[in-house]
Amino acid sequence: MQSASERFENLFKDKVLHYRELNKTVVHGQTVFAGSSLMEQFPIEKFISENKENVVIYNRGIGGYLSSDLLFSIQDCILDLQPSRLFINIGTNDLSMENPISDMIEIYDEIIFKVIESFPDIEIYFMAYYPINYDVAIERMKPTLKIRNNEKIKLANMEVEKLAKKYGQKYIDVNACITDSNGNLKAEYTVEGMHINEAGYRELYTELVKYIN
Q: Which of 82, 84, 85, 86 is nearest to 61 (CA)?
């Protein structure tokens, strides 16, 4: 198994170095989005601009990230921005593996501990993991979604909610607008059964904006 440093060098170095450069010009004390592809692909800055919201958000999500990857690069993805608020959704890629949910939560806990240790007054919004839709998944995605199924996602969300309570922070679930009557990600809002298209993100934004503001 690759070490965190090896994964960084092989997979994420360019993206993290890009963020490190961007961080030189950020305004500290703003809002940060952190996580994996489901955060990176959220066009939050575009929506904020379109709706003329009086808030600054920096998206530091990175596709493919495990919880351990975010922990490894926490300085560049979170701490260097000195945020006053953090919206975080990390661990979905961990859920695509056979490892126990508790392993992911242990690392998630360490991430949050480091953030609060650096910024005791920060507000953290733990975002519920989004559902998937196995029935409309493309073939190459189906083996992953057999592991990362909606039952597992529900169990993981329960653990994330507990983690939020442990730190006296907020757990938010804005998924109702993208979830069908069977508990799946709505077919019209998914790219390939797991990732979300812009129309789906627009629906999520309508629910998320009340927390952003």
A: 86
Pick from 144, 211, 136: nearest CA to 174: 211
Pick from 107, 106, 153: nearest CA to 127: 153
Report the SS3 class of residue 55: coil
Q: Using alpha carbons only, what angle is made at residue 120 by residues 117 and 126, rounded to the nearest 5 degrees?
A: 85
Sequence length of the chain is 213
Judge whether 81 and 28 are in contact, CB under 8 Å: yes
* pLDDT tens digits, 79-99: 999 999 999 999 999 999 999
Instruction: Please report the sign of the dihedral spanned by the C-alpha atoms of residue 201, residue 119, residue 12, residue 89.
Output: negative
Q: Which two tokens stand for residue 147?
A: 């592991």
**What confidence category does residue 1 fall into, taking pLDDT thresholds of 50, 70 and 90?**
low
